[in-house]
Amino acid sequence: MERLMSSPGVIESPERMESQGGNGQHWIVTVYNNEYNTWDEVVGILMAATGCPEDEADMETWEVDNLGKSVVHHGEQQVCEEAAGIIAQIGIRVEVSEE
User: Fold this and answer.
1) Which residues of the chain form beta strands (DSSP E)?
2) What was the pLDDT predicted at 4?
3) How far apart are CA 63 and CA 73, in angstroms?
4) In the sheet where 94-98 sits, what is the strand order?
C-alpha cells in the first residue's frame, strides 16, 4: 500500500548553505505540498530530477509534507529550470527563484 503524504513528526532545521558569491548565479528549486501525489511518487521524481540519493529525497519529501514546501535543489538557473520541469511533470507545484 502506498503511503500518502500526511505523516506527522518533528524535523530539526538543517544548516544553511553559504551563497556562492554575489554574482546572482545561485538559484533554488522549491517544491510545494499537494493532496494527490503519493510519498513514493515525490521521492522518485526528486531523485530523477536532481540526482539525489533516496535518503535525501525522502527527507525533502518529509519537509514538503510536514512544512508545506522544501528547497530540493541549488545551482545554476538552467540546471534548476531543468530539474523543475521534470518535477512539474507529475503535477507538483514547483518554483525556481534566485537565492
Assistant:
1) 27-32, 69-75, 94-98
2) 54
3) 13
4) 69-75, 27-32, 94-98
Region at 64 (left for phi over 0; alpha for psi -120 to 50; beta for the rest): alpha
Question: Model confidence over 6-58: pLDDT tens digits?
Answer: 444 444 444 444 444 555 569 999 999 999 999 999 999 999 999 999 999 99
Rounded Cα distance between 34 and 93, Å, is 8
C-alpha closest to that of 82 among 22, 29, 16, 32: 29
Contact between 94 and 64 under an 8 Å Cβ cutoff? The reply is: no
d(C-alpha 68, C-alpha 19), whole Å: 24
Q: What is the pLDDT of residue 7?
A: 45
